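Per your request, structure below.
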């Protein structure tokens, strides 16, 4: 099982980036996927999560209206489109999944709250928003 996050970089405030999380060794269709981020000196925080249905999504208040999570089932990849980026979005971004997360018993927002419950993590990708 492997998750590969990519797409980070340096962008000016107001710019956009699209992060990708490609999975191997398992079918993403059957699992909820999370994007977390961690800025220097701060705790890892949930940014956006998507359930097995594309309609089941969660966004942190800080990114709502600017970030969009999506899934390409043919490519076994989840994306995080980030628009109107702000300096405070600067962080290392990680994708992750919890194979035991039960969407029938918990909301997708719950998945985004508990980073320590994740079973598998992709290597992080650095996003830096600066002029």
């Amino acid at each position: 099982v492997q998750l590969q996050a990519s797409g980070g970089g340096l962008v000016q405030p107001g710019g956009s980036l699209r992060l990708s999380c490609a999975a191997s060794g398992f079918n993403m269709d059957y699992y909820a996927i999370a994007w977390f981020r961690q800025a220097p000196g701060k705790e890892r925080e949930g940014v956006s999560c998507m359930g097995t249905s594309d309609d089941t999504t969660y966004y942190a208040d800080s990114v709502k209206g600017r970030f969009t999570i999506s899934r390409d089932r043919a490519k076994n990849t989840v994306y995080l489109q980030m628009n109107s980026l702000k300096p405070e979005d600067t962080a290392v971004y990680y994708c992750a999944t919890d194979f035991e997360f039960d969407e029938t018993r918990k909301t997708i927002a719950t998945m985004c709250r508990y980073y320590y419950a994740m079973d598998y993590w992709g290597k992080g990708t650095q996003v830096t928003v600066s002029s």
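The mean pLDDT is 95.

Regards,
D.
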